[in-house]
Write a structure and sequence with these properties.
mainly alpha; about 200 residues; elongated; disordered N terminus
Length: about 200
């Protein structure tokens, strides 16, 4: 019974993710998600009593998928610089795919729920752990000079996030072109940052 319940719950989250990504969160109702699955709203409400709980579940799924993909890409990278650049590459792919969903999270009344408000913070914690690990491996191989991996990773990510906050603080919904421009700037920052971290004798 437990396995069957989990399968149904996953199907609901997938259906909601498709709707949110195509139409946005605000324009999606629980009834529409239920209709997509050919179930009643009552069945859907058994797993998700309100829209907020479903939004939170979708955000959690995105976080898991994003971190899993980023981790795989970073671990497959040949250099620390390549691994760091995966931050912008993977994030760009996710933004393109889930544009309507992402821009809706910060601009909805229901996003004022504490769980939803902190979704970026939860992403950042996971990202920092991956960057820290990347730096630690870089020091072991001699690619990077000795450094505080935690502190340096936090500084890099805060610098990258600053560009995103500048776009957000303009007050309007971010356009896809503006987001791509931010990613370009972030890539340039990563390349400059890397030059300061690289060991003098390292040759790629």
């Amino acid at each position: 019974m437990k396995v069957e319940s989990n399968v149904k719950q996953d199907q609901i989250v997938e259906a909601a993710l498709r709707r949110f990504s195509h139409f946005g969160i605000a324009k999606t109702t629980l009834t529409e998600v239920a209709d997509d699955l050919s179930v009643t709203k009552q069945v859907l409400s058994y797993y998700f009593p309100d829209k907020q709980s479903l939004v939170n579940a979708v955000i959690d799924k995105l976080k898991r998928d994003y971190i899993q993909q980023l981790k795989a890409q970073m671990e497959a990278s040949r250099t620390v610089e390549e691994g760091l650049l995966k931050l912008t590459e993977v994030k760009g792919d996710f933004f393109e795919k889930y544009f309507m969903l992402v821009i809706g999270i910060d601009h909805l009344e229901l996003a004022r729920n504490e769980d939803a408000v902190n979704w970026r913070k939860r992403f950042a914690i996971k990202e920092l752990a991956l960057v820290k690990s990347l730096f630690e491996n870089g020091m072991k191989t001699g690619e990077l000079r000795p450094l505080d991996a935690q502190k340096t990773g936090d500084l890099l990510l805060e610098t990258l996030y600053a560009f995103s906050r500048c776009v957000k603080d303009r007050g309007a919904l971010p356009e896809a072109d503006a987001f791509r421009d931010v990613l370009t700037k972030q890539r340039e920052v990563i390349k400059l940052f890397y030059q300061g971290l690289k060991a003098e004798k390292w040759v790629n």
